[in-house]
């Protein structure tokens, strides 16, 4: 049976190479178990067994599965923010269609870079120490990107626009992560068209 732990406790950061490799193995195992069982049904015991580690070793680095979600959530956030910040600093994506394409492309790149990315929605609202911080970083990066491309927006309009854009992008993440049989390419094309139309209205002001 899993131990009772503080679900908001911060994970331990390893300093030695051996510890770093062990944490990576535990995170990879947790990602697999979360995919297979779902976050709520997954247990720390299953994660430790999948990693070929003792339960004590797992708890040494992660007090609870929520602290694992913290790390996965932070890595997803880093992958998104790094790409949006880089995009903002380039001369690319100034038309509505280009910006919509670039936003979905960078999200796809982040998804490919972080195996746990498809779990982002599943762990988005789990308790943790960095939930608000990750959300704030993502929104700040998107606000800055949109400000660089649509400077006429007021601060209030900018925040509202960023939220709508983020919801559309989350829809794309849901399309890619879904297990249903449907035309993913067609659905993504429809979402890009919707985002292009929305951005065109904002840029025309």
Automatic annotation (TrEMBL):
Protein's UniProt keywords contain Transcription: yes
Gene3D superfamilies: Tetracycline Repressor, domain 2 (1.10.357.10)
Pfam families linked to this entry: TetR_C_15, TetR_N
DNA-binding region: 43-62
Superkingdom in the source lineage: Bacteria
Keyword DNA-binding listed: yes
Gene Ontology MF terms in the entry: DNA-binding transcription factor activity; transcription cis-regulatory region binding
Keywords for the protein's UniProt record, in alphabetical order: DNA-binding, Transcription, Transcription regulation
Domain spans labelled HTH tetR-type: 20-80
Protein name: TetR/AcrR family transcriptional regulator
Provenance organism: Sphingobium fuliginis ATCC 27551
């Amino acid at each position: 049976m899993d131990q009772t732990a503080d679900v908001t406790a911060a994970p331990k950061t390893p300093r030695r190479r051996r510890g770093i490799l062990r944490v990576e193995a535990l995170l990879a195992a947790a990602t697999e178990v979360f995919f297979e069982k779902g976050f709520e049904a997954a247990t720390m015991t299953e994660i430790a067994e999948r990693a070929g580690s003792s339960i004590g070793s797992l708890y040494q680095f992660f007090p609870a599965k929520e602290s694992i979600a913290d790390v996965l959530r932070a890595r997803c956030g880093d992958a998104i923010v790094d790409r949006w910040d880089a995009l903002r600093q380039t001369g690319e994506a100034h038309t509505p269609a280009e910006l919509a394409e670039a936003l979905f492309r960078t999200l796809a790149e982040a998804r490919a870079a972080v195996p746990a990315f498809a779990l982002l929605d599943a762990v988005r609202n789990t308790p943790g120490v960095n939930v608000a911080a990750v959300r704030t970083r993502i929104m700040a990066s998107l606000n800055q990107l949109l400000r660089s491309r649509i400077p006429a927006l007021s601060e209030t309009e900018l925040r509202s626009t960023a939220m709508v854009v983020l919801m559309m992008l989350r829809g794309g993440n849901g399309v890619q992560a879904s297990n249903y049989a449907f035309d993913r390419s067609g659905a993504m094309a429809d979402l890009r068209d919707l985002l292009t139309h929305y951005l065109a209205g904002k840029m025309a002001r």
